[in-house]
Amino acid sequence: MLILGIESSCDETAAAVVKDGREVLSNVINTQIALHKKFGGVVPEVASRRHIETIDAVIDEALEQANATFDDIDAIAVTYGPGLVGALLVGVSTAKALAFALNKPLIAVHHIKGHIMANFVAHKDLQPPFVCLVASGGHSHIVYAHDYTHFEILGRTRDDAAGEAFDKIARVLGLGYPGGPLIDKLAKEGNPEAVAFPRVRMDKDSLDFSFSGVKTAVINYLHKLEQNGEVCNKADIAASFQDAVTDVLCEHTIEAAIKKNSKIIALAGGVASNSALRAKMTEEAGKKGIKVIYPEPILCTDNAVMIACAGYYEYLNGNTADMTLNAIPSLKL
Ligand code: KG4
Ligand code: ZN
If you measure from the C-alpha of residue 140 to the centroid of ligand 1, how many angstroms do you get, rounded to a whole number? Predict the structure, then answer.
């Protein structure tokens, strides 16, 4: 079964053709990073406009690379939330138009489910259940994948997403946008023990996250240095901040895996590309006999392969959408 996946929830316009849920025939991503860079973050209206301009060409390219035509496609899967409403609407409207014109099934996909599903593409023998940490610019969730379509939230951020915290700290350090990869790189030259930034635990029994405290602590620390006329070692601050965030992500996720008796922890979302997170999670979970897996970076960031994969399993489960499908910006898991 060939599924055309479409993703436009934030600043990536993406289309992909995936066979039987797990075999990637094409993966086209048109990123808008350069467009939003000068604003230091994604400008929703600018994103929507760029999606409209590029989506047809991105889909054509995905078909061409897969050596397929619209006739070969069996169903169309699209992200319908969560995300920026104008951006989501471009993908949803395009998918609805294609499904209607071609008379093919339309499948609505939850963006976070998509991120988790990238692990099925990256690891062909992976089977549920398992625990997954989904950490991106918009979300930080610990999820238990009961099967291919049913996910239970075990913990979530109460304020900032992990990626959002990386982006904000990179901005105050004057590193640029998006901040995650830049902090990851700079931290390699710094001492993670240079500054003890807080590791926040909401309450004893909760696996929820809070990253606003560590963010404020870094900003206050920088202000103090400035007031005292001291020189700031950016690499040490990046390393110490990253250490605090990854400590919390690892601790809560491993606790979740132990609670669920899961022998696998999967990582997903843009922050799953973080080298310190990957190394720390692998080492710490390994001590408990838990294996850590993650997709290659191109499948961690927003892409349409993960949407086609999720769409395949939704379709097998009988979950198709009709022409009333709408974008839902704050769609719950
Ligand atoms: O999944 P994604 O591409 O888009 C969203 O759905 O948000 O995630 C983007 C986020 C950004 O905040 C970016 O800074 C972060 O993922 N990110 C990283 C790394 N690569 C991307 N954060 C930490 N370390 C990285 N290597
Ligand atoms: Zn995402």
Answer: 11
